[in-house]
Structure to design on (944 residues):
């Protein structure tokens, strides 16, 4: 089992529904977020290219955040989901520093928080909140180990890229370009 | 109990429906694995109630989830709903912020004066409604009841409108007509005998070519359309976007035509020229269904791509290529009519060109073009007939705007300012969910109209700027706290959707149906509201169609089989259009009768002077203009607008990113607040762009006050459409002011101008 997400940049309009859906689903306080939108514009008017991406924790295979955590609060669960045990977290921020994606933030209650792929929803057979709400259906979630899953099919059929490959973290969020 | 994944799969094979939705026996069918979003968590302390969204007019149906303490957890789409297909947009998802907003209006307010100083006093509902009833009656007696007007945007308008009609006035208007989609409606009625209304019947999901000319799907988050555009992208459809700005849609397009602003009609005529000259049009369709092809052919014969190149700056080969592309996809091609169509005052003619181009492509009534929508008609309880009215808003504009099919908000506003050549002026306004100071252009004029009123009631959820000018303010509860009329908007299938309260109204706020009923009773018009509680009306209406309130409370949305016709006009089928000729009028006989060009013509519009830039405004997907700019959840996504400036322009003015600038328009109006600069290649050198709805100037809007800039205060040049009275707002030009203008103009009138709405009104009244 290897959970992963693919996001089709050809369809994403950057509406931020994924962000607000994550906030309400996971009761994230206003002013904080586990996911966000990035826009990259290239070229000179009128020869332009725009890429819009919904970004979050990459649930990497090689996890500097877990390695640097002094208490073991950062850990990996079944399916490769990287999680933070809020009880064990002392909020030192070492993981925040080590993450090449800036995917973690300090929760006002003193612990570090991040995307969980909505594992509470996955356990109920649902997609993560961001995927389930996306009006453009640009996000795909599933098991990469299953060659018949929608995500396996789309990742093998389309040109994909990952963010910061040079960091060697083996990220599991794939951008369809 | 924690469910392991393996457990879940075992359960799901037995049917998730039984497990998760025991509360909803009617929902026998539940979407498959990894799609469901209406599973109630294991603890079952969570409740869901149906609603349809009120954050924009798309009115998506969904579910509000609340916990056992009555806290709203989230709002998600209803899978059976055609507007949302189970997915809400960011505004709908963040709709809970409208309920939680601590700046909401909390109790009725009455304007009072003491020692020459005006202020709002908190009042009881009874007191406030008594005063309204008394003042409306007095004004009706002193002048005429027809001099009372209602401005409305949103679901509550129906209730208030009925009371006003019962009282004796039919002047009911919404800025969404003359300030937005009016020209489009008139153009399509002239061509096809039918307006487009909402949601537009564009069959985007089946199209092979989508042409967006000044429409920016993706930034406008009209949910169903955004979803269908995404489906079209998946299906490999061609998108052609015409926009001086590199919009989100432009970035998804095979062709982006960065047109010179205000020249769209020239491009549309050139496309018609190519399609006719190269005989790419749908000959059978034109022959069978249309009127005036020869006149059109003759009209566009010289409108060549070379002619249009000089006007639009779009190269002739691109015009030809794109024309062939859409004709190649026809009839599965849509030249999208757009929504906010009031640009340059010749907007009805531009939209006529769009309508005619669609006819050449044979797309009206065809798969992948425009489908034939159907609406469920609900019965109404018996009420007395409305009194006959002698005057309407039209009397204030004799002989003008005869083709407008709805009342003009701006027309009523103008007719409130007394004039020697007018028989009577409006004396009282009821304003519901419509912040007229930012929705109607030329604010000075709007304020003058307000200052000529004897009485104004504003009903809103928020202390929008207009409330600062009211004599009585009534706090409406949000859509999450109330019942409303059933949603029956047209779609591929007729449907009905229920909105019911998920929670009790916060503070001392009330639903519009209740406000309208109380007011009716106080005015002696109780017979017009033949129910004690709105649930009686809803249940009665639903029973007439074989459903019930009880059923709808469980399912939220019910889709019904079509009754009248097919989704598409079948090949060769006889079809009569509701026009003078019974055909699609390429040549608009209704325009000819009224003395307007029966075929659209291009006319040149003014261009910016050196140092000035065209003021372009639009939308962001996470906001519905001012309606949401104080919403805590949505403000978290975007809390101010920025001014898009081309890098070359920025260099010329020595502007840097995030630098604050003020804008001054061609009439010397300076913005109240500054705006941060966003230097981007996504806009050309001749315009600047910002998102509408920011720069709020009422201090009671604590989160949004003074954040960003309000484009509407700079829209003082209004180009009125002679055909239907639409207010063209894209003919304004601005220049940058890099130092705080307030520091320069110490002690003079600029200071007064910068006061918030409330005090400005008071000053005006005293003056």
């Amino acid at each position: 089992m290897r959970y992963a997400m693919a996001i089709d940049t050809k369809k994403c309009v950057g509406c931020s529904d994924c962000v607000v859906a994550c906030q309400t689903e996971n009761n994230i306080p206003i002013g904080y977020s586990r996911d966000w939108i990035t826009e990259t514009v290239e070229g000179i008017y009128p020869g332009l290219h725009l890429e819009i991406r919904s970004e979050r924790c990459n649930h990497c295979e090689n996890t500097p955040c877990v390695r640097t955590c002094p208490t073991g609060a950062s850990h990996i669960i079944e399916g490769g989901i990287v999680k933070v045990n809020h009880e064990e977290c002392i909020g030192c921020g070492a993981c925040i520093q080590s993450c090449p994606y800036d995917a973690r933030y300090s929760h006002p209650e003193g612990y570090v928080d991040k995307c969980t792929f909505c594992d509470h929803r996955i356990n109920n057979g649902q997609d993560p909140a961001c995927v389930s709400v996306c009006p453009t259906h640009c996000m795909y979630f599933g098991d990469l180990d299953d060659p018949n899953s929608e995500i396996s099919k789309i990742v093998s059929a389309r040109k994909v890229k990952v963010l910061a490959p040079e960091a060697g973290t083996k990220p599991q969020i794939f951008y369809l370009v | 109990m924690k469910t392991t994944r393996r457990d879940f799969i075992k359960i799901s094979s037995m049917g998730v429906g039984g497990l998760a939705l025991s509360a909803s026996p009617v929902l026998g069918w539940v979407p498959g694995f990894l799609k469901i979003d209406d599973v109630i968590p294991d603890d079952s302390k969570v409740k869901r109630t149906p609603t349809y969204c009120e954050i924009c007019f798309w009115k998506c149906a969904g579910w509000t989830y609340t916990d056992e303490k009555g806290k709203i957890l989230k709002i998600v789409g209803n899978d059976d709903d055609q507007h949302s297909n189970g997915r809400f947009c960011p505004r709908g998802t963040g709709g809970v912020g409208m309920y939680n907003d601590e700046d909401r209006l909390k109790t009725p307010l009455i304007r009072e004066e003491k020692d020459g100083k005006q202020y709002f006093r908190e009042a009881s509902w009874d007191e406030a409604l008594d005063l309204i009833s008394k003042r409306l009656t007095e004004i009706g007696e002193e002048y005429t009841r027809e001099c009372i007007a209602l401005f409305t945007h949103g679901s509550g308008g129906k209730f208030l409108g009925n009371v006003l009609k019962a009282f004796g006035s039919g002047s009911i208007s919404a800025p969404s007509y003359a300030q937005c989609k009016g020209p489009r409606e008139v153009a399509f009625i002239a061509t096809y005998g039918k307006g487009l209304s909402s949601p537009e019947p564009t069959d985007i999901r089946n199209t092979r070519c989508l042409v967006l000319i000044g429409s920016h799907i993706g930034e406008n988050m009209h949910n169903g359309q955004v979803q269908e555009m995404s489906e079209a992208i998946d299906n490999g459809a061609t998108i052609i976007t015409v926009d001086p700005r590199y919009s989100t849609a432009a970035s998804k397009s095979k062709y982006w035509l960065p047109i010179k602003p205000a020249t769209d009609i020239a491009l549309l005529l050139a496309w018609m020229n190519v399609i006719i000259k190269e005989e790419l049009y749908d000959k059978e369709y034109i022959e069978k269904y249309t009127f005036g092809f020869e006149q059109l052919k003759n009209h566009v014969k010289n409108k060549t791509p070379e002619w249009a190149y000089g006007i639009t700056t779009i190269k002739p080969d691109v015009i030809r290529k794109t024309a062939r592309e859409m004709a190649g996809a026809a009839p599965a091609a849509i030249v999208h009519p757009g929504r906010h169509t009031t640009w340059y005052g010749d907007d009805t003619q531009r939209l006529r060109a769009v309508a005619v181009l669609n006819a050449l492509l044979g797309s009206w009534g065809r798969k992948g073009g425009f489908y034939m929508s159907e609406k469920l008609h609900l019965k109404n309880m018996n009420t007395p007939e409305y009194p006959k009215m002698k005057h309407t808003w039209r009397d204030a504009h004799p002989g003008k705007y005869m083709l407008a099919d709805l009342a003009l908000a701006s027309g009523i506003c103008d007719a409130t300012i007394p004039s020697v050549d007018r028989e009577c002026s409006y004396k009282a306004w009821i304003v519901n969910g419509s912040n007229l100071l930012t929705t109607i252009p030329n604010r000075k004029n709007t304020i003058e109209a307000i200052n000529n009123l004897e009485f104004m009631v504003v009903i809103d959820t928020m202390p929008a700027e207009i409330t600062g000018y009211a004599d009585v303010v009534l706090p409406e509860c949000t859509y999450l706290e109330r019942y409303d009329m059933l949603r029956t908007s047209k779609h591929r299938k007729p449907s009905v959707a229920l909105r019911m309260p998920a929670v009790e109204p916060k503070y001392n706020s009330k639903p519009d149906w209740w406000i309208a009923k109380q007011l009716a009773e106080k005015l002696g018009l109780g017979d017009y509201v033949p129910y004690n509680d709105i649930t009686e009306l809803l249940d009665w209406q639903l029973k007439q169609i074989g459903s019930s309130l009880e059923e709808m409370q469980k399912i939220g949305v019910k889709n019904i089989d079509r009754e009248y016709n097919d989704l598409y006009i079948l090949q060769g089928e006889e079809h009569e259009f509701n026009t003078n000729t019974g055909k699609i009028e390429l040549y608009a006989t209704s325009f000819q009768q009224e003395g307007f060009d029966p075929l659209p013509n291009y006319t040149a519009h003014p261009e910016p002077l050196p140092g000035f830039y065209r003021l372009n405004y639009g939308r962001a997907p996470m906001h519905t203009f001012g309606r949401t700019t104080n919403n805590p959840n949505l403000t978290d996504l975007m809390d101010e607008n920025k001014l898009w400036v081309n890098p070359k322009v920025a260099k010329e003015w020595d502007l840097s990113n995030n630098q604050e600038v003020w804008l001054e328009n061609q009439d010397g109006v300076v913005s109240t607040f500054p705006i941060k600069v966003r230097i981007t290649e996504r806009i050309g050198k001749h315009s600047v762009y910002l998102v509408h709805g920011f720069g709020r100037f009422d201090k009671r809007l604590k989160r949004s006050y003074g954040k960003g800039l309000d484009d509407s205060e700079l829209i003082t040049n209004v180009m009125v459409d002679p055909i239907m009275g639409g207010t063209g707002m894209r003919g304004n030009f601005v220049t940058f002011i890099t130092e705080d203008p307030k520091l320069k103009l110490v002690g003079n009138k600029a200071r007064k101008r910068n006061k918030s709405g409330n005090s400005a009104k008071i000053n005006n009244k005293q003056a």
In short: The mean pLDDT of chain A is 97. The longest helix of chain A spans residues 17-25. DSSP finds six helices and ten strands in chain A. The first strand of chain A starts at residue 3 and ends at 8.
